[in-house]
Amino acid sequence: MASSICLHGFGVPRAAKEALSSLILHHKFISSIQSNYCFTRAFASSSVSITADKELRSPDLVALEYAGLNLTDKISQELGHVRIRQHVNPLSSSFSVPAPVPDWSEVFRDPTLPLMVDIGSGSGRFLMWLAKQNPDSQNYLGLEIRAKLVKRAEFWVKELALSNIHFIFANATVSFKQLVSTYPGPLMLVSILCPDPHFKKRHHKRRVVQEPLVDSILTSLMPGGKVFIQSDVLEVAVDMRKQFDSECGALQHIDMVDPSVLCDDEGWLLNNPMGIRTEREIHAEFEGAKVYRRLYQKSIVLN
Q1: Quick one: signal sequence residues (predicted)?
Q2: Residue 15: C-alpha distances to residues 7, 40, 58, 84, 220 (Å)
Q3: 223 and 139, same domain (yes or no)
């Protein structure tokens, strides 16, 4: 009789996830395991079934990582198929108009809470997971340049009945400063995770981390606030790192503030500090790629 392992929602131990991740990195479970493994979502009627004799896919691991959100398939019925355009040109005139500033008291239950901004929020699952974990202590804002992803994310937010998260269709380079400067509470964290690499040299100017955005982040960030960057493309990670390392007068890498934080010999974080991986991060690690991470903290000025 086939046995099964059921990992329920937010009760999934991190160690169990990591163990499963290591197995999935081999693309299939060890051959001695003949049973089906059922990863059951708490509060959900569906499950992700992974069969021992079937090649695993990274979407299976994404589904496991975000099972606790219990996102339904209603999205396809309400909004139709959301075809994701992987690359857009942020320098196009169509993205040059600043995003309208929302009424923060309408999009957040308490607009005075500390704010995290995720630049390039993609599907939004990463931020939704964080928002669900911290419903009363933090607000979350996702900025995404692909309008269909924002529309779908906002649909999911309503489904989850979350009042501490909002998504805006925006070109962060154009809109970040104006949006964040009007927010009533402090900006505590900015994340830029696996941004579009724009590999061609002539397209490097399209990369999101440029000096004006870095300046806006530093100006807006509260003392002690943090910036988290990561990429599975070394060239992109190094490029972002140079931009933020150059602000050494205002920013310190986290291992300089907290020596207990572990880095490798080249200064990249050994572990993801967020408690949840982005979808791109999951896909990259599934393919055996290394993810390069840096976490900075804004200096606290003592009187």
Answers
A1: none
A2: 12, 17, 19, 32, 36
A3: yes
**Residues 186-223, buried b or exposed e (16+ Cβ, 10 A)?**
ebbbbbbbbbbbbeeeeeeebbbbeeebbebbbebbee
**At 231, which amino acid appears?**
S
Per-residue exposure over 67-84, b if at least 16 CB sit within 10 Å of its own CB, e if not: bbbbbeeebeeeeeeeee
Query: pLDDT 10s per residue in the chain (303 long)?
Result: 433 223 233 334 444 445 445 444 444 333 332 333 333 333 333 444 444 456 789 889 999 999 999 987 655 555 555 555 556 765 556 666 788 999 999 999 999 999 999 999 999 999 999 999 999 999 999 999 888 999 999 999 999 999 999 999 999 999 999 999 999 999 999 999 988 775 566 656 666 788 899 999 999 999 999 999 999 999 999 999 999 999 989 999 999 999 999 999 999 999 999 999 999 999 999 999 999 999 999 998 765
User: Torsion angle, CA of 15/119/114/163, rounded to 10 degrees?
Assistant: -80
Under 8 Å between Cβ of 194 and 231: yes
Q: Coil, strand or helix: which one is 20?
A: helix
Instruction: Quote the domain boundaries for residue 60.
Output: 9-69
The CATH number given to whatever domain includes residue 169 is 3.40.50.150
Q: Is 196 a catalytic residue?
A: yes
> How far apart, in whole angstroms, are the C-alpha atoms of residue 164 and residue 139?
5
Three-state DSSP at 241 gives helix
Residues 49 and 97 in one domain: no
Q: Residues 257, 112: one domain?
A: yes
Between CA 255 and CA 104 the distance in angstroms is 34
Catalytic one among 73, 196, 239, 245? 196
- Helices vs strands, H then E, count in the chain: 11, 9
